Amino acid sequence: MIWILLPGMTETPEEFGPVLELVPGADVRVIDPWVTPVNADPAVLRAAAGVPAEVGIGLIGHSIGGLAALRWALSRPGEVERLVLVDSTLPSETGHRRFYPGTRADRIVRGFLGALGWTGLPWLLGPVIRRTSVRVGSVTKRDPLSKAIIKRRYGVSSSWQQFWDELAASWVAAEQVGKLLAQGPDSVVLVAVGGGSRAGADSWLAGQRELAGTLGGRVEVLADSAHLVHLDRPDAIAAAIR
């Protein structure tokens, strides 16, 4: 079986290296969101991962990537044999409809973020935002990305528009998943409640347990990990896909 990994918002394929190192015998293909949005059609994601349509797959999704994986598994149940949700966005997180893709507010936000490129701010602030997200979202606070990769990924205005597009598309996906929810494939739900994730951990865990119960899956609580589980507990993700 081939695994397809869908990163979360603002996440790069390179930062999932620690997970891949722990499963040398597994065929895990990480989607690059800078090339293919994680909320793209499953056929597009398959093609991006180089997986033929007739091949059974397992899906791993972190954060909004988890929501995208969940939509794929529920809308095309015959394709997905196993599902691993890693601190996944919940179907209840439907955002604000006035900002959905294609709305006037969405176009204003995208235009504003594009205009920032002319100021040079993305080049200056992109790396700062990346470092801050790792400090807040990780217990270990260790960023595996080199400075060169961070500059290339986060220092251009098109990336900032991409991040907004990921967020807005995830709201639509959440709404769709809410209508599709049913028992799914063999599922594992990893839930981070450590570090910066301690705030609101009880309600977050309750929501994840409810999701797992609907899917018929099992929950593993990670008290020693914050939201960026692939940085804090890559071994937990590796164990779930073995």
From TrEMBL:
Using the record's annotation, list all stretches that form the AB hydrolase-1 domain. 45-240
Q: Which residues cross the membrane?
A: none
Task: Print the keywords alphabetically.
Answer: Hydrolase
Drop me one GO molecular function for this one.
Answer: hydrolase activity
Note the Gene3D superfamilies from the entry. alpha/beta hydrolase (3.40.50.1820)
- Gene source species: Kribbella sandramycini
Query: Which Pfam families does this entry report, sorted A to Z?
Result: Abhydrolase_6
Q: Which domain of life is it from?
A: Bacteria
Name the Enzyme Commission number(s) assigned to this protein: 3.1.1.-
InterPro entries listed in its UniProt record:
AB_hydrolase_1, AB_hydrolase_fold
Coiled coil (UniProt feature):
none
By what name is this protein known?
Alpha/beta hydrolase
